Amino acid sequence: MITVTDLRKVYRQGERDVVALDGVTLSVPKGSVHGIIGHSGAGKSTLVRCLTLLDRPTSGSVAIAGQELANVSDRDLLAARRRIGMVFQHANLLDSRTTAQNVAFPLELVGTPRKRVAERVAELLQLVGLDRFADAYPAQLSGGQRQRVGIARALATDPDVLLCDEPTSALDPQTTDEILALIKDLRDRLQLTVLIITHEMHVVKRACDSVSLLEAGKIVEHGSLAEVVGRLGGRLSGALLPLPGEVPEDLPAGTVLELLYSGEHAVEPVISGIARRFDTDVNVLAGSVESLGGEQFAHLRIHLPAGADTAAITDHLKASGIAVAAKEA
After folding, report:
1. pLDDT tens digits along 6-58
2. What SMART domains does its record include (predicted)?
3. Disulfide: which of 61, 90, 97, 221 matches 101 by Cβ 3.0-4.6 Å?
4. Helix/strand number for the chain, H first, E second
């Protein structure tokens, strides 16, 4: 549904060129929720502007449902943009308009008949759970309600793709989860393809099927949640399934092993199995177990005492499908 190929965006600032996007290639299948995560300055906002053609890419291509957007004429650009709904960080509502009037605004811009506007607005407000607030003004709504209005407005023209630029960063945790649940529900009901730009790992965990890490204008990691979490030592894996605390400095001599495993292994008695099979003590230093991308993962840090057959234990774990990284204590 969304295909980005070797996308570059270079801005001219005085005598120098600033590369905001440097060869971004990305594919988001129809009906999925994909997260783009990165710190401030990574190029996330520039990517959104290029996807919506608010900025023309310097080179590369952007296609939505097979339609190339980077080279469309100005006359056809508005029609192409109507296939993309945009949800902003702060909703960007018009304060002088009611909830219903805000949702109606995109339809009015394209000359939709009044009767159809009223019908569509009523449908959308019910869809986002705000049918009782049609006559309320933005100042009378909570932050979560304003974001729901923004989502309804983004859906007004019946888009194929929903782009969400930091849609929850201004919300409290409970409201964040409610908005993410709404986005996933809308994806399922309307068969939308959703791209969420965020700097919050919680958003990726709660809403996304796949994720890309954007850094200095480049995608440095990419894959389904299960794929990226399963890469022991990867930055996305460490951020999505972190281990609490640090390795204690006063550990006795021995070896620290970091283990990552999933699926059926995540519910197996791995630690007690090591202790019995190799007749050794095993000290669990830290652990995290979580379901991500529809799969159960376990991430552990354990300590083996000096004298334990570390090589044999490591080989056994790897043969069992468990990723292992070793460090001397």
Report:
1. 999 999 888 899 999 999 999 999 999 999 999 888 999 899 888 888 888 99
2. AAA (SM00382), NIL (SM00930)
3. 97
4. 11, 14
Q: Is the pLDDT of residue 71 over 80?
A: no
| CATH architecture designation of domain 241-328 | 2-Layer Sandwich (3.30)
SS3 for 10-41 is: EEEECCEEEEEEEEEEEEECCCCEEEEECCCC
Tens digits of residue pLDDT in 76-124: 777 778 889 999 888 899 999 999 999 999 999 989 999 999 999 999 9
Predicted local confidence at residue 312, as pLDDT: 95
Fold observed for domain 2-226: Rossmann fold (3.40.50)
| Domain boundaries of the chain, sorted by first residue | 2-226, 241-328
**H or E stretch including 229?**
helix 225-229
Specify the long-range contacts of residues 128-132, CB closer than 8 Å, at least 24 apart.
Answer: 128/152, 128/182, 128/186, 129/182, 130/99
- Residues 25, 48: Cα–Cα separation, whole Å: 14
| Calpha distance 226→210 (Å, rounded) | 8
| pLDDT at res. 244 | 86
